[in-house]
Specification:
The complex is a heterodimer of chains A (211) and B (124).
Chain A: H1 19-25, H2 35-51, H3 55-72, H4 80-111, H5 115-126, H6 131-142, H7 148-175, H8 184-196
Chain B: H1 33-43, H2 51-74, H3 83-90, H4 94-123
Helix pairs in contact in B: 1-2
The chains are: A mainly alpha (211), B mainly alpha (124).
């Protein structure tokens, strides 16, 4: 299966017909980018990247769906049920078009990365928690076995969790005028902030409803 | 970097430092050191993050997983952890929710593709 993290230089070249992309691909990426800028950019990728997880599968299913929808919308006076289905199909088609636009934009962006940015991006996509260790950890807590989907979901969420902490810590670090690498005091302040925003679990305080 | 440890009450159940003489009970082997380092670099930290920071992150992740597991065990089907419970617990956090849905969808598509591929191969 093609690994999206392996950037192919020719993938950045826009398809014929996408006129808007050709102007952006000639933008030079030579300006020096600090790691802090990169982490700010990467923040916005989080959502887009999850779309790009498997380019080939998405594109193939998008192509197949488009073929089906062309046949469905050819009649002149559709019945109410068919009308609903057509609307649903149109929305689906629009969503897939948006996905494809996002994929193309990502490809253009990634093809203009510097060496260091490429490294970091590759680490971002490829790093993951070992499924065996996570499974062992969960099973030691529950005492019974867990399904594979649970392990997949848990490792995915944990990765997002560490991402949130690291990004918050980098914000703290920048705000305090320090430089990376991150120090424990930044991490602790980041956790404190996330907990006050309720983005991080906090079981230190018991919720007492009625005194 | 001993001067960074200025909050001794942070980790109550694990011993402080972690480098140095093994204090026997309570010292868990580091499960995710290598992977966490790569992850921190990917998310914007330096290429060589501090060991203490990696330790703190690992403790946080283990605490997070432990808590999610306990909560998932208490809702839905008691004593078991199921995907639906995790999705329910995460529903308030948009990023994590979206990530879980995407991961599970991708996994389903992958399984379908592999199954179709295997059946095609089996026939020939």
């Amino acid at each position: 299966m093609a690994d999206p993290a392996r950037v192919r230089p020719e993938a950045g070249r826009p398809e014929p017909g996408e006129g808007s992309c050709s102007s952006t691909s000639s933008e030079p990426a030579a300006k020096p980018v600090s790691p802090l800028d990169i982490h700010k950019d990467l923040k916005s990728f989080d959502r887009k990247l999850s779309v790009m997880m498997d380019l080939s599968v998405l594109q193939r299913s998008a192509a197949a769906a488009e073929e089906e929808e062309e046949e469905g919308s050819s009649s002149l006076h559709p019945s109410p049920a068919k009308k609903l289905k057509m609307e649903h199909d149109k929305k689906k088609e629009k969503r897939q078009k948006v996905d494809e636009d996002e994929i193309q934009k990502m490809q253009v962006l990634v093809s203009s990365f510097s060496e260091e940015q490429l490294n970091r991006y590759e680490m971002y996509r490829r790093s993951a928690f070992p499924k065996a260790a996570i499974k062992r950890l969960i099973q030691s807590i529950t005492g019974s076995s867990v399904s594979q989907n649970v392990v997949i979901a848990m490792s995915g969420i944990s990765k997002v969790f560490t991402g949130e902490i690291v990004e918050e810590a980098l914000d703290v670090c920048e705000k305090w005028g320090d430089k990376p690498p991150l120090q424990p005091k930044h991490m602790r302040e980041a956790v404190r902030r996330l907990r006050s925003r309720e983005q991080s679990p906090n079981t230190k305080h018991k919720h007492i409803l009625f005194h | 970097m001993a001067e960074e440890e200025d909050d001794p009450g942070f980790d109550e159940d694990l011993d402080d430092g972690g480098n140095g003489v093994d204090s026997g009970q309570g010292k868990r082997k580091r499960l995710f050191s290598k992977e966490l380092r790569c992850m921190m670099y990917g998310f914007g930290d330096d290429q060589n993050p501090y060991t203490e920071s990696v330790d703190i992150l690992e403790d946080l992740v283990i605490e997070f997983i432990t808590e999610m597991t306990h909560k998932a065990m208490s809702i839905g089907r008691q004593g078991r952890v199921q995907v639906e419970d995790i999705v329910f617990l995460i529903r308030k956090d948009p990023r994590k929710f979206a990530r879980v849905k995407d991961l599970l969808t991708m996994n389903e598509e992958l399984k379908k593709t592999l199954k179709a591929f295997d059946e095609a191969n089996y026939g020939s």
